[in-house]
Specification:
The complex is a heterodimer of chains A (244) and B (233).
Chain A (H helix, E strand, L loop, with lengths): L5 E12 L2 E12 L3 E5 L6 H8 L7 E6 L2 E3 L6 H4 L2 E4 L10 H11 L6 H10 L15 H14 L4 E5 L7 H18 L2 E5 L3 H7 L2 E6 L2 E7 H6 L4 H7 L6
Parallel strand pairs in A: 3-8, 3-9, 6-7, 7-8
Antiparallel strand pairs in A: 1-2, 1-4, 4-5, 9-10
Chain B lengths: L1 H16 L2 H34 L5 H12 L3 H12 L14 H25 L5 H7 L4 H11 L1 H16 L3 H7 L9 H10 L3 H30 L3
Helix pairs in contact in B: 1-11, 2-5, 2-8, 3-5, 4-5, 4-9, 5-8, 5-9, 6-7, 8-11, 10-11
Classes of the chains: A alpha/beta (244), B mainly alpha (233).
The complex binds adenosine-5'-triphosphate (ATP) and magnesium ion.
Amino acid sequence: MSESEILYSLRHVTKAYDRRTVVNIPALDIQRGEILALVGPSGAGKSTLLRLLNFLEPPTSGQIALDDFTLSGTPPPLDITRRVTTVFQRPILLNRSVMENVAYGLHLRGQRRVQSVVMAELARVGLSALAHAHARSLSGGEQQRVALARALAIRPTVLLLDEPTANLDPGNVALIEDIIRGVNREQGVTIVLVTHNVFQARRLAHRTAVMLDGNIIEIGDTDTLFTTPTDPRTGAFLRGEMVY
Amino acid sequence: MRDIINGFIQAIELIFRADPTLYQIVVRSLALSGVSLFISALIGIPLGAWIGFKKFAGRGLVTVILYTGMGLPPVVVGLIVYLMLSRTGPFGNLGWLFTLKAMIVAQVIISFPLVAGFTMAAVMGLDPQLSQQIRALGATPWQTALTMLREARTGVIVSVVAGFGAIISEVGSVMMVGGNIAGRTRVLTTAIVLETQKGNFDLAMALGIILLGLTFIANTLILWMQEGRFVRK
Ligand SMILES: Nc1ncnc2c1ncn2[C@@H]1O[C@H](COP(=O)(O)OP(=O)(O)OP(=O)(O)O)[C@@H](O)[C@H]1O
Ligand SMILES: [Mg+2]
């Protein structure tokens, strides 16, 4: 995080559904190796922004650059999109064993000898003992850890997290926050974390961006933003005065 | 009741006597429905998956047409195929009428909407966020489709079972376009009709029991494949 190298660079990015603009970002740079939190009320466009960053949907206008690739118009090549992955709020596991779920992204990439990677990721999320269990027989917290292990197994450059702990008990929240911190520190994975929980943003994020009605109204160093917000709406949101 | 019991005894006898005519009919029935089912699956599974995945204009209309196709009366299918293939029909010069080819055409028309319809329902019943998650993990469009089908496998197998059930037991269309020609287009169902008309209730009953048995075995095989090969408890 010391040297700031830009990983994502968004310019004039908009996304509209049925002519209604739900994301409008004139400029946003995401540094390689940082944890960026996205906070904001419901409907602000946070999930939509993550879908754009994962190239799951094209922007309506503007450019999204990742590393040396710039997306504008044409669909991005596979080796670019495969550097990014998302873990969603609700773990969406395949109807297979835990191991097969974690191996899935590797199999998609044509890798066959995946046993050691899969077991290492399961160890990281504390689920080695459940490797052979059926994925859907696990508890919600365990399932989310499987989803996280599955995402980490592909060694992403960027990990996008869409409210990954919103449905979980405090124990699992702490576990997952530790894993997030760990992969960021040890492997330099760049993380964009959408959260409703401003305390979580404070615990994890180097920088925080506040979204409102599709716009990033304020972005900055997490501590600074939380202690001395410059935009009055940020202050209102942080004090919980914003309805969502 | 006597007919049923006699039929049962005679069925056992026929099976163990290895009656060549009977075996021919059984093999022909299975081959006909097998080939028809294979073609139906080849058309129906991708079609059903495609309708289930894609949100396109007119999907509602296509779905209604498909559901109508799932309930097509076999005799109507037989009539239309007959008219198409008869000497004065548009495909008359193929010379397919009263051959197994005509019967395959009719059976495919009967069963592929069932395969497509049940496959579509199975795919549409998947978690709406599943495809997004699969793509986020780096799947190509093809990999996404294959994974989705595999996730919907129970429903896909049901679609094939339904397609098979509809044609192995179907008599209306194969009678019309096949003509029930001994040694060529006679299958179990048409043989049952013929023997009943001739008053050979014992033989008809025997054939019926064999047909039931075959359907039972085929469906068991399909379910066994599903459980042993694809599904974990
Ligand atoms: N596929 C879509 N089609 C139409 N409108 C959409 C679509 N996806 C999102 N929207 C709209 O875009 C806006 C932003 O949605 P988004 O899900 O990005 O918000 P969010 O900030 O993630 O909210 P939440 O905190 O509730 O998850 C909402 O008004 C939503 O209704
Ligand atoms: Mg959201």
